[in-house]
Design a protein that fits this description.
single chain; 184 residues; mainly beta; Immunoglobulin-like; 2 domains; 1 helix; 17 strands
Length: 184
């Protein structure tokens, strides 16, 4: 497979849906796929966000350019690097569809999570996430437009710490689903 970082215009054309080449300084600041390590089955814009479908029986790494963090629904791990060109990196351990979704009202975005995100919903006052199999001693690091009033993990409040303009909530190490609710 040809590296999208070297031949990025083709991938950016897929992500934007435009047929013209995107080069150098003409690259828009919109969210777009910039790298995928394995076979890319499809890349499509959906109502919920930008969907990437990969086919693999091994780990697949992917990266998006994103001015703000988002939520990678379906990713096993995600990390947003604002200092490295605003890259949102993620990986999955098998072939599946991953959807990059942006919060519409809360400004919520995951900065780092070491658990698969199964679902993401938001209202004007809450953000709900369903995570699967968080790793031992893992945390959910996120950003919001407003400071969170309370964070609930499986219905129980947890202590949230501030790290600059980001927030960090501890996650329990457990098998199965974990419900996280951020009250704004």
């Amino acid at each position: 497979m040809v590296s999208p970082r070297k031949y990025g215009a083709a991938w950016e054309t897929l992500a934007t849906g435009r047929n013209d080449r995107i080069t150098g300084s003409s690259v828009p600041c919109s969210t777009r796929l910039i790298y995928v390590s394995k076979n890319l089955e499809s890349l499509r814009q959906e109502r919920g966000g930008l969907a990437v479908e990969v086919i693999s029986k091994a780990m697949v790494r992917m990266a998006f350019h994103s001015d703000t963090p988002g939520v990678m629904v379906g990713a096993d791990y995600q990390d947003w690097h604002r200092r490295c060109g605003h890259e949102l990196e993620a990986h999955v351990t098998s072939g599946r569809t991953v959807v990059l979704r942006k919060a519409r009202t809360s400004g919520f975005g995951i900065v780092r999570a070491a658990a698969r995100v199964l679902d993401f919903n938001e209202t004007s006052s809450t953000v709900s996430l369903t995570l699967e199999n968080p790793a031992a001693d893992s945390t959910l690091r996120f950003r919001t437009d407003n400071p969170p009033r309370r964070v609930l993990v499986n219905g129980k409040p947890v202590n949230v710490s501030r790290a600059g303009d980001e927030w960090e909530a501890p996650l329990p190490a457990m098998q199965g689903k974990v419900a996280v609710v951020v009250e704004l």
